[in-house]
Amino acid sequence: MTNTNSIGLDAQKSAQLVASLNKLLSCYQIQYMNARGFHWNIKGRNFFELHVKFEEIYNLLLLKVDEIAERILTIEGHPLHAFSDYLENSTIAEAKNISDGQAAVENLLAGYSTLLTMQRDILEQAGEAGDEGTASLMSDYIKEQEKLVWMLRAYLN
């Protein structure tokens, strides 16, 4: 008989998901701060449209930060909450001193590519664990972000 948590999931598989979700949470926090910085520091000819778009993006990211942390708690884990932990665990790098629109969009695009790869891995991991809640969350994020990636690429071209 397997050891299950309070929502009926295998505790060991949930612990593995918590580790993956904490890495994802870390990446989201850095992507969020990058988008926030782009919003604050953008300059140039496309200032008005990018300033608004970056605000839209960072608001979406912030919602997901909260959802991921709450999912970690739901499957009986502990979400990372120190920025030093985010920096240590993120595979998305901090972006500093970027005020050029093209560079900012390219940076966000690279970050979303990382997030999509991670989310597909977590989706598979959640499926193997029978964790429909986490799988559903990842599936929703993937669908939304694939469209955003298309739009960001179209902007650059």
Spell out the key features of this protein:
157 residues; mainly alpha; 5 helices; 76% helix; elongated
Task: Characterise this structure.
- The chain is an all-alpha fold and 157 residues long.
- The protein contains five helices and no strands.
- It has helices at 11-41, 47-74, 83-89, 101-129, 132-156.
- The model has no long low-confidence stretch (mean pLDDT 97).
Q: What's the layout of helices and strands?
A:
Elements: H1 11-41, H2 47-74, H3 83-89, H4 101-129, H5 132-156
What is the percentage of strand-forming residues? under 5%
* Residue share in helix: over 70%
First-to-last CA distance? 55 Å
Radius of gyration, whole Å: 17 Å
H-E order: HHHHH
Mean pLDDT: 97
Largest sheet properties: none
Q: Can you tell me the overall shape?
A: elongated
Structural class: mainly alpha
Quick one: how many beta strands? 0
Q: Number of helical runs?
A: 5
Runs in which pLDDT lies below 50 for 5 or more consecutive residues are none
